[in-house]
């Protein structure tokens, strides 16, 4: 049975909104160069991650899942956010920017993607499980390899630093 973590609504949502707003405001200010144009033609993507594999077993590890949404410009640049239960069962969030590279190795379905942004949620006794953590906030980055089954659906594997891999399925709303 999947147990969802208790959500400390006021604290988690407020911190997530502040972080997302700061990140979007910063990158939105650079829209004139086209790289972070949040209003550029593109599409929305919904992603779910039902399974993660840890490279090293620990009794402290809990079931990890994630749900997220991102906006991808036709140029491949993207921004988004996700809500997830981290490896220690704590409700967490990730706001980010990144880029997708379709047609990897001349294979139309194969793509690579990276994202970098701000994590929130690793607190208490687990605060040192992510680098540069300050009061639950830390930098984050994901590197991914994926396969597009068609124009709307894809699957990808996200590298979670030196901790593990996360399987992700996505649906694009064109």
Summary keywords:
single chain, 174 residues, mainly beta, Porin, eight-stranded antiparallel β-barrel, 8 strands, signal
Explain this structure:
- There is one protein chain.
- The chain has 174 residues and is mainly β.
- It has one domain: Porin (Beta Barrel).
- The protein is 11% helix and 48% strand.
- It contains one helix and eight strands.
- An eight-stranded antiparallel β-barrel has the order 1-2-3-4-5-6-7-8.
- The longest helix is centred in the first third of the chain and has 20 residues, at 9-28.
- The radius of gyration is 16 Å and the shape is globular.
- The model is unreliable at 1-5 (pLDDT under 50).
CATH class: Mainly Beta
- Give the total of beta strands: 8
Helix-strand pattern: HEEEEEEEE
Task: Give the biggest sheet.
Answer: 8 strands, antiparallel, barrel
CATH topology: Porin
The CATH architecture comes to: Beta Barrel
Give the topology.
Elements: H1 9-28, E1 42-54, E2 65-73, E3 77-85, E4 91-102, E5 110-120, E6 137-148, E7 153-160, E8 164-173
Could you give a quick summary of the protein structure above?
It comes from Roseateles albus. This is ABC transporter ATP-binding protein. The chain has one helix and eight strands.
